[in-house]
């Protein structure tokens, strides 16, 4: 995975106590939908104690590829989703 393009799809939206960011990632010929909640500061609840406290990624068919909700529910399983997670953490965490 040499080139991963992540595009924020809309202005972050507030729902309850959370502010959600919706994004799309393109890796080669695969497209993924991303939903995430980010804190203003790093937190013990974030991935690797960073800012992302919730992260959901689905592939183009809508199948869940990764889910983190203050802990791992589904870790990335493929090379593509592992690379995508790294790119997201580098950019947003």
What does this structure look like?
The protein is of the alpha+beta class. The protein is built from 1 helix and 7 strands; from the N terminus they run E-E-E-E-E-E-E-H. The chain has one helix at residues 79-92, and strands at 4-8, 13-15, 18-27, 30-38, 52-59, 64-69, 72-74. Strands 1, 2, 3, 4, 5, 6 and 7 form a 7-stranded antiparallel beta sheet that branches. Strand 6 (64-69) and strand 7 (72-74) form a beta hairpin. The longest helix is centred in the C-terminal third of the chain and has 14 residues, at 79-92. The radius of gyration is 12 Å and the shape is globular.
Main attributes of the structure:
single chain, 93 residues, 7-stranded antiparallel β-sheet, 1 helix, 7 strands
Our count of helices gives 1
- The span between the termini is 20 Å
Strand content: over 45%
Largest sheet: 7 strands, antiparallel
Outline:
globular
Rounded radius of gyration (Å)? 12 Å
- In sequence order, what are the helices and strands, one letter per element? EEEEEEEH
Low-confidence stretches: none
List the helices and strands and how they pair.
Elements (H helix, E strand, L loop, with lengths): L3 E5 L4 E3 L2 E10 L2 E9 L13 E8 L4 E6 L2 E3 L4 H14 L1
Brief summary of the model shown:
The chain has one helix and seven strands; from the N terminus they run E-E-E-E-E-E-E-H. It is α+β, with helices and mostly antiparallel strands and 93 residues long. Strands 1, 2, 3, 4, 5, 6 and 7 form a seven-stranded antiparallel beta sheet that branches.
